[in-house]
Amino acid sequence: MSATGEIALAGRVFRLSLIYGALVTLGALFSLPVLWMISSSLHRLPDVFAQPYRWLPEVWQWENYVRAVTILLVGRFFLNTMVITFPVMAATVLSSALVAYGFARFRFPGRDVLFSLCLGTMMLPGQVTMIPLYILFARLGWVDTYLPLIVPALFGSPFYIFLLRQFFMTIPRDSEEAALIDGASRLRIWWSIILPQARPALATVLIFTFIGTWNDFFGPLLYINSPEKATLTLGLNLMKTQVLGSGVVEWNVLMAASLLVLLPNAILFFLAQRHFISGISMGAGK
User: How many CA atoms does the CB half-sphere of 152 hold within 13 Å?
Assistant: First the structure.
């Protein structure tokens, strides 16, 4: 290898070392809160905030997880959370995909204006619509039910509409034109041709929706009043005052319960990571 080639190779190795070193450093920094949560979930209560902090506990308190499952009523709160999460996922992906298909394939007067208006709603803070929505749902008699948390998903999400529209525009029209010649309706084309080819983007929407709904705290806090209808996030909040019944928070047990609530998010993301990255990159590339 010539001297020039050796210099180029050394420069490339140096650049890659810097890039991977920076990525590892940032990854470690972002992982610290999760590592602290895992470590604290295995400590005794006095050791959680002890100084200096011991990352490895002297005595491994695995019973913290047993107490977390018992106190949090995981079965009941888990079922309540799933009752909300699965309908929201289905409604969001279907409604957003249908609207996105209309924006991607149909030409009609005012289409671009409507699409810009749809994107503009993302700039509206949720605090602006919070009170009007609560008044509306209260007058409908939906407070202390799951309807205010599920029904809005039937109208799609602006961000997901944008993401799916960009992905749909990358799909060739040849198969659609052939289906139209054979007499297929637009709805049949959307269901049988477009959606199967958009699995990466749909997986991305499903993952985002699952994480957002599963971790939602403010929505259930606003509309759910009955403890028996509480979700997992509300249950974690209840644990702050009901673990010992005296206002003392058992942070080690609370961290164990938080880790149990976090696990479905992590499992889903790692199982669908390939589709997630593909959907984001292809949608953004268009």
Answer: 15
Q: What is the pLDDT of residue 272?
A: 74
Q: What is the DSSP letter of 152?
A: G
CA angle 262, 267, 272 (to 5 degrees): 130
Contact 158, 119 (CB under 8 A): yes
Domain ranges of the chain: 3-61, 64-285
The residues near 153 (Cβ < 8 Å, ≥ 6 apart) are 87, 88, 91, 92, 95, 209
Q: Give the closest residue to 87 by CA, choosing from 233, 206, 226, 222.
A: 206
CB 64 within 8 A of CB 42: yes
Of 271, 245, 263, 272, residue with least CA distance to 81: 263
Residue with token string 């205010």 = 148
Residue 249 DSSP symbol = -
Q: With the CA atoms of 242, 246, 252 and 257 taken in that order, what torsion angle do they form, in degrees rounded to the nearest 10?
A: 0
CATH of span 64-285: 1.10.3720.10
Cα–Cα distance between 138 and 146 in angstroms, integer? 12
Residue predicted with more confidence, 263 or 4: 263
Task: Tell me the pLDDT band of 247, cut-offs 50, 70 and 90.
Answer: low
DSSP 3-state assignment of 185?
A: coil
Between the alpha carbon of residue 268 and those of residues 140, 200, 264, 276, the distances in Å are 35, 14, 6, 10
